[in-house]
Design goal:
The protein is built from 20 helices and two strands. The chain has one domain. α6 packs parallel to α12 and α15 runs antiparallel to α17. It is mostly helical. The chain is 73% helix and 1% strand. It is found in: Cell membrane; Endomembrane system; Membrane. Its EC number is 7.1.1.-. GO terms for molecular function: NADH dehydrogenase (quinone) (non-electrogenic) activity; NADH dehydrogenase (ubiquinone) activity; quinone binding. It comes from Pseudomonas syringae.
């Protein structure tokens, strides 16, 4: 096909991110400078975010058979870029400067995060199984290095190895599933697969097996039960900004492509697979919440919490009709904001870098008396994760419940309510710990350097956004409503 100027405008966010990767790489080769690398990364990500507006003007547009740039892709590209921007800002505060900072090379972390973000952007635009696999691998491979970036910490190395091995196993399942699906449908495009499966009614046993194996591969990336075993160890071992990226941008990209596949090829999620998705949803909600109850490590708790939250999202995926796509969009935006805020507090507590992250619950005992503003942010994030009214999390959870009720998925909706009730307990436990009084604790706020102040400003912005969307969610609802999924002709 001939590429026109419209195609380049549509691809601008991805092209600018890729150009930023090259510029950052050359800058590191020319001269190592932590602040310079950070500023170049931030500038590139902001330009990529701004370029989404002109991309929307030419959307929907098919750019090669692999990619389809529409308002749905633009929404999730914006979400990935915003998450990456927040994680890069956290990383700058986390890695520190001078003798008190991270002891190894700091600059490559930005390079790896940018590469992973580019992979996520390919993923949310994919309309072809080859595009899906390219995007998924470009997203996953840099994350192996990111998780193990704190190479002198054995938990970080252990997390990196576990994620690499299990992610490779997930990719193998995905490829095998794609091969079986191609054997049945004779095409790799989502639209072609949908038409081939629809022509035969319910998917054949071969197609069902292929789709099932693909689901296993994607469920590994989303850490859905029973493919969740890597999650707590990887979250605990990864540096806090990397764990934030893994919990937000990485999972958003994978879930968005799953939504696109099942919406363009509705026959793909029918039959036995529909029941399998429902079972995975219930298991993820209950297992994630029950295991989080026993945690005394905040990053592990957030890891199990993320399993439960993607279980909630699976309810909308199972419903698939009505307001399901809008509910998923609203929930993912609110989940990303809240998760970034939670990991942002851990990042600020762990700065400057000093061996391991401050992720043990006892380290947050009486935090209110030392760092009041961090306590305020963490309190708001816990309330939002619990789905308490006047927070962004309530709006997201309300939409998922409404979708479940609309589709008459009573068992799934019931499991969401039970899971949310369990979740309130451990979120409140974190909040209570923050306000405990200990006479030995110093009653003053710590002094921050400029990098940490930048991270602090970003955290406050996230907290204000989480509260503002809880009080007045209409701008978010309008944005998601106008970012519906369009099937390419």
């Amino acid at each position: 096909m001939d590429l026109t100027i419209q195609h380049f405008i549509a691809l601008a966010p991805l092209l600018i991110t890729s150009a930023t990767i090259v510029v950052v790489m050359l800058a590191i080769a020319w001269r190592r400078n932590h602040s310079q690398t950070f500023l170049l990364s931030v500038a590139g990500l902001n330009l990529a975010l701004l370029s989404i507006y002109p991309a929307l003007k030419v959307a929907p547009l098919v750019v090669t058979p692999l990619l389809h740039i529409d308002s749905f892709a633009c929404l999730y590209m914006a979400l990935i870029l915003a998450s990456t921007l927040a994680c890069v800002t956290m990383a700058h505060a986390y890695l520190g400067d001078g003798k008190v900072g991270y002891p190894g090379n700091r600059e490559e972390l930005y390079l790896l995060i940018l590469m992973a973000a580019a992979g996520g952007m390919v993923l949310v635009s994919a309309q072809h199984l080859a595009g899906l696999f390219i995007g998924l691998e470009l997203l996953s491979v840099p994350v192996y290095g990111l998780v193990a970036y704190a190479f002198f910490n054995k938990r970080s190395l252990e997390g990196g190895i576990k994620y690499m091995v299990l992610s490779a196993a997930g990719s193998a399942f995905l490829l095998f599933g794609m091969a079986l699906l191609y054997a049945e449908a004779g095409t790799l495009s989502f639209d072609g697969i949908g038409k081939a499966l629809e022509a035969t009614g319910l998917p054949s046993p071969l197609a069902s097996l292929g789709l099932g194996m693909m689901l296993v591969g994607l469920a590994f990336k989303l850490s859905l039960v029973p493919f969740h075993l890597w999650t707590p160890d990887v979250y605990e071992g990864a540096p806090a900004p990397v764990a934030a990226f893994l919990a937000t941008a990485s999972k958003v990209a994978v879930f968005a492509v799953l939504v696109r596949l099942f919406q363009i090829s509705p026959a793909a999620s029918s039959g036995v697979l529909h029941d399998v998705l429902a079972v995975i949803a219930v298991a993820s909600i209950l297992v994630g919440n029950l295991l989080a109850l026993t945690q005394t490590n905040l990053k592990r708790l957030l890891g199990y919490s993320s399993i439960a939250h993607f279980g909630y999202l699976m309810i909308a995926l199972v419903a698939s009709k009505g307001m399901a796509v809008e509910a998923i969009g609203v929930y993912l935006v609110t989940y990303v904001i809240t998760t970034l805020g939670s990991f942002g507090v851990i990042t600020m507590m762990s700065s400057p870098y000093s061996g391991r992250d401050a992720d043990a619950m006892f380290e947050y005992r009486g935090l209110f008396w030392r760092r009041p503003y961090l306590t305020a942010v963490m309190t708001l994030m816990m309330l939002s994760l619990a789905g308490i009214p006047l927070t962004a999390g309530f709006i997201g959870k309300f939409y998922i419940i409404a979708t479940g009720v609309e589709a008459h998925l009573w068992w799934l909706t019931g499991s969401l309510i039970i899971g949310s009730a369990i979740g309130v307990f451990y979120y409140l436990r974190v909040m209570v710990t923050l306000y405990l009084v200990d006479s030995k604790l110093p009653r003053h706020d710590a002094q921050f350097n400029w990098a940490q102040r930048t991270g602090g400003v970003m955290l406050l912005a996230i907290a204000i956004l989480a509260f503002a969307l809880g009080v007045y969610p209409q701008p978010l609802l309008d944005l998601v409503l106008h970012s519906g999924l369009q099937v390419p002709s």
